[in-house]
Amino acid sequence: MKAAAIQMVSSTSLDANLATARQLLEQAAEEGAELAVLPEYFCVMGHKDTDKLRLCEDYGTGRIQEFLAAAARELKLWVVGGTLPLRGPDDAHVFNTTLAFSPEGQCAARYDKIHLFRYDNGTDRFDEARVIAPGSRPVGFTITARDGSAWRVGLSVCYDLRFPELYRAHARAGVDLLLVPSAFTHVTGSAHWEMLLRARAVENLAYVLAPAQGGVHENGRRTWGHSMLVDPWGTVVAQRAEGVGVVTGTLSHRQLREMRAQLPALDHRVL
């Protein structure tokens, strides 16, 4: 199965971001992808955290969800929108949510980001919990590829990457592919992004597909980018450093089986 990680440099304009996302999804479809995954905050990177509240939607309805469903249906591919703001537990908070849409345009899975990023180096400070409510459970879904093969997919978002217990829960559920749509900062991304993605692939013997925001945004924020596909051996199969574009690669069940047979670490778990 061919999969695509879409890299964006999202602006403060919903219209512009959706137009760019559509163009990139079309490119992914033209390149033969059966699955295309958008980055975290693909629909908006606001001037301030509370901009998310203005754009939040009720689950099952809204312009952003209609956009994702239509793109999946019209382009005949799985589309994962990772992420958009859905209504939270109160008026001051939203969920940072990944939604997966089938080629029929049906929502097949919803994951609310569990781990919320907080950073303070004495000069720069950021705390997602100011406007985002955390999710509470791992979520996975199954893709049936055009060749009839089934791929079990585990969902995660950005800061989740630092918490291996979430990915181990996905491994126990039998996942083949881990998705990590992200908007890593340039500072943390340059230090930890690739090593964490490769570690999650190796320790769980699964493919990792990580679409990211990658560049200098209208709001002044700089994200790391380096969207990539990593195979279960920890090899970076495809990658884009910065800027808008599509990273495509092929996932092989045969390769997955061979790697798991050669080093059956998942069968050796004790704890």
TrEMBL record:
Keywords: Hydrolase. It holds the Pfam family CN_hydrolase. Residues 1-253 form the CN hydrolase domain. One of its GO terms (molecular function) is hydrolase activity, acting on carbon-nitrogen (but not peptide) bonds, in linear amides. It comes from the Bacteria. Gene3D superfamilies: Carbon-nitrogen hydrolase. InterPro entries: C-N_Hydrolase, C-N_Hydrolase_sf, Nit1/2_C-N_Hydrolase, UPF0012_CS. Belongs to the carbon-nitrogen hydrolase superfamily. NIT1/NIT2 family. This is Carbon-nitrogen hydrolase family protein.
